[in-house]
Amino acid sequence: MDRISALRNIEDALRTFEQGEADLATTERQVVAVLRTYATDFEGETELAAYRGGGDDRAEGLVVVASSPAEAEARVRDLLEVEDPTALDVVVDRIE
Prior knowledge:
The protein has helices at 3-18, 24-40, 69-79; strands spanning 49-54, 63-66, 91-95. By secondary structure, it is of the alpha+beta class. It folds into two domains: 3-40; 49-95. A three-stranded antiparallel β-sheet has the order 2-1-3.
C-alpha cells in the first residue's frame, strides 16, 4: 500500500465516523489496520511485521515494525533508550 492509498483509506474511515455510520472503536480498528498494512508492506523491502512488546512494564504494549523478533526486541530497547541490553527483559509477539 502506498502513502496516498493509506491516506485515502484513513480519510474514508474518518468520513464514515463523521457521518455516524461507524462508532469510534470501529474507526480506530480501521485506522490501525491501514497503518499496519502501510508500515509492513513497503515495496522492495524485506518482509516486515508488527510486533508487540512485553516482558517489562515499560515495554508492555509498544508496537514496532521489524523483519525478525530479534530486530523487534532491539527496536523496543532503542525506543526505551536502554543502553545495556541485559538491563531490560523484553519479549515480543508477532501481531497477525
